[in-house]
Amino acid sequence: MLLSKHKKEGIAMTHLLCLGDSITDCGRLFSPDPLGNGYVKQLSVLLHAAGRHFSIENKGIDGFTLEKLLHNIDGWITACDPDIVTVLIGINDIGIMMNTRRTPQQQQTLMKEFSVRYEILIRNLSAIQHTTPSPSTRKLFVLEPFIFPWPQCYISWMPLLTQMSGQILKISKKYRAVFVPLQDALIKEASRVGMDAITIDGIHLTPLGHQFLAEKIYSSITERF
């Protein structure tokens, strides 16, 4: 069991840091609620309802690519020294590959750069895991990027997304991070309740979509702690 270094009013708190782009941000930059209005907020509700002593920080930023996340990560980790980190990043990188008239060869170059940067990110976040195991070892939860085939223009993004997911899974295994598969689960749920019930535009989620995502992350975390 992970023993937190953080305390609040004498209670040991597990500090959870959520990293990502607009899906994680979900309005938190322009909201009085620092957790935003999406899955991070709903995850917090689930954890506290279950009596879990978690403090949660949302560092998702609208428009972030992996490169931008890397530029900020060292300061955030030093400032809060989290016990658990979740990472959901990559769909904006796919957008750059698809929407900038890159050739297939150029897209593959960008994909290789993404993989290199992603490994740097996970290696830096999990550095503590390569020391002697201890109760304070940080745990990483790597969330699979996702997209919906609605509108149909996003169908052409699927091959690159599948390739990216494979690279992320490989890196996750290498650094003993927990890979949380989301693409197939979200598509299955959207097929059950309707695409427009889960996603507003094929990339971003509705409140129901965020709830589904929060429940998947909640299950992954509570299965291990």
Portion in helices: 40-55%
Instruction: Please identify the structural class as seen in this structure.
Output: alpha/beta
Could you state the order of secondary-structure elements as H and E?
EEHHEHEHHEHEHHH
How many distinct beta strands?
A: 6
CATH architecture: 3-Layer(aba) Sandwich
Query: Rg to the nearest angstrom?
Result: 17 Å
For the largest beta-sheet, the strand count, sense and barrel status come to: 6 strands, mixed
Query: Would you state the CATH class?
Result: Alpha Beta
- What is the overall shape? globular
Strand proportion, as a percent range, falls in: 5-15%
* CATH-assigned fold name: Rossmann fold
Give the number of domains.
1
Contiguous runs where pLDDT drops below 50 for at least 5 residues: 129-135
Q: So, the CATH homologous superfamily?
A: SGNH hydrolase
Mean pLDDT: 92
What gap, in angstroms, lies between the N and C termini? 6 Å
What does this structure look like?
A hairpin with a 2-residue loop joins strand 1 (6-8) and strand 2. Strands 1, 2, 3, 4, 5 and 6 form a six-stranded mixed β-sheet that branches. With 225 residues, the protein is an alpha/beta fold. It is globular and about 55 Å long. The chain contains nine helices and six strands, in the order ββααβαβααβαβααα. Helix content is 48%, strand content 14%. It has one domain (6-222): Rossmann fold.
